[in-house]
Amino acid sequence: MEEKIQELFCKLRDIGASFLIYQKRDNLEQTRKIIPEIQEFVLWFLEGNRFGIEEELYQNMSSNLLEVLKDILEALEQEDMVLLHDAAANGLLEYLQLFVNTEQEDGANDNI
Amino acid sequence: MTIYEKNLETLAAHYPEMDKRIREAQAESEVEILEESSYSGETILKIRKDERCCYLNGKRDTEELARKWVETLGELQRDTPVLMMGVGNFTYLKELAEQTENPLTIVVYEPSLQIFRKFLEMTDIQKWMEKHLIIFWVDGLEGMDAKSMGDIINQVLKYELLDSAKYFILPNYEVLFPEETVLFVKSCRDTALKELSIYQTNKLFSEVMVKNLFSNARYLCDGYKTTQLVEVIPRDIPGIVVAAGPSLNKNIHELKKAKGKAFIFAVDTAIKPLLQAGIIPDMFAVIDALKPIELVQMEEARDIPLLTTLNAAPEVLNYHRGMKFFFNEGYLFAEDIFEKSGHRTGDVSSGGSVATNIFSLFYKIGIETVILVGQDLAYTGNKSYADGTFQEKIEEVDTSYFMMVEGNFEKKVPTRTDLKLFIDWYNMYIERIREYDKEFRVINATEGGAKIQNTELMTLEEAIKQVCNKEVDIRACLEKLPPMLNEEAREWTVEYLKRIPEEFQKLKKAAGKLKKLYQKLDKICDKKNIDRKEYLSVLKKIEKQRQIIDGMKVYQMISITMSNAHYMLLAEQHLQESSLQKEGKEIAQMGITYIEDAIKCAAVFEKYAEDIFGDLS
Fold it and tell me: Domain extents for chain A?
């Protein structure tokens, strides 16, 4: 799973950067392609608290993650690129970051 | 006082009556504005339109998009034009206005009056308006609509600023307002293209321009003015613009039936095929500075009255013997002569091609029905021109990479960027005429080519049957006209042209003074500690001397010829260096280089003028 998270993190980060820095307005299209990976991560996270964190914090994080997923799906349905960017870059990406090996990430190919 | 009221006051202080227009405008409820709170409590907007609902700010980070956008713009020079669409997320304008140090020229286009009003409720714009030149263009306000937005963009987007100009459409505006977005992008693109095209044309023609101007100015002495045509041409006959597009071959012979029943006006390139078909047009036009004489070199063409410009190829004017009609083109040295003629001022809207010039002239002399022939504005049958123009048989070209536009008979036809500009010109020009003159009628009898809006499509045969019903002898009408200058004005003109070399001498003297001032500035900036007072005083003197030179009529020819350098100098005005010393040095060195070239240029033109006007009588 770690590898998959790493890959998803890189993809979402690149989509966000293209939108934010290069003003590429194709985040809807790009995100649609990785919806199965996003769903897989969310389900994996919601399967149970196996991260050694307090149960209350885990529950809060879970409901927030569901909110993020809801926004992503609403954005895709409404073709709302602002909501999608916000939910992906300022929501989902923060979760993924918890599981990403930053050393490995630093060495990753930054080919946006 | 609410923020909204305060903003209206601010706007009224910059744009008189804008407050009134905002108050009185009726907003069509085309959008529903939903206010929500972000996670950190700020008000953010969500817009519902046509069953779609989109946010304009992020919920989790409301300012991230705007902050990053402004960061990526980097340091913006003074007066940089920023053209943006949308104020629903005001943080974009806020970041731009507050984070940019230099004053900018910002054009904000907002397609929804409701959103604009909401924007005025949400944030105080006073400080931004004081710091920058901000122009709001809002659909729904009196005098403002997306279609005429081009006029305002035209004033802001100048060639010398094209490189630094920024364009931006707020995310989701393209989803919520797709048609308006296309119009906005099109206005920006068209203006940029036009500026580029004017610059390239100037650059291409600048070397030959002054020689042409002087050479052709001789013909003003016995020439005619287009405004005189109003006195003799009846308005109730149709005017036929004969262009040289590939479709001309289809119906050229039909034109015989229109002779004596319409005002047949041909472009230069159509002259040969027309004469070969036995049709003598009533007038023809030569506008281009580099038009090859071979295109019109036929004995019968020499006496056909000619519409021309001071910049047209002088070989053609020398070859031509008949009446030559000129119009006000804005060349300052010639404007005095036109004024002396006592005739009305009158230009011809160029539109960029010879045919558009003729079209505009027809309208300006009061012709109510215009028929277009051979005006393909496209590569009909993959050909650029009619047979018999540049070659007996024009070869087909590969148009697979050409841009495609809507055709008159075909769904799409291939065209070039410059021809597309002419299509746009026709669309704009006819639309504007019809706003004032509903009776104005344009029949497109090209029988091929690109579609021009607001024209009636018919064959030339049908058009002639329908509107060419009255006998008219255009040649006899024209022969009633006296030359534009009477004897006394003619004598004055000859003397005036003979004095032009002296004007260049005066210009060289004034330029020498300006050079000395630039040298002084350069010296001041060599010192470690700049005397600010002295620095500003020299800058003031430079400005004054530049104004003196700008006011000299013959200087216009120098600035046109040195268009490259002139644009560089204009761009320099917007440049701000990190230190006063660096900025002063830059101004001085650029100024010295420019002025030295201008002096050399003036010397060359002085010689041209002596050679051309020396034996004028």
Answer: 2-106
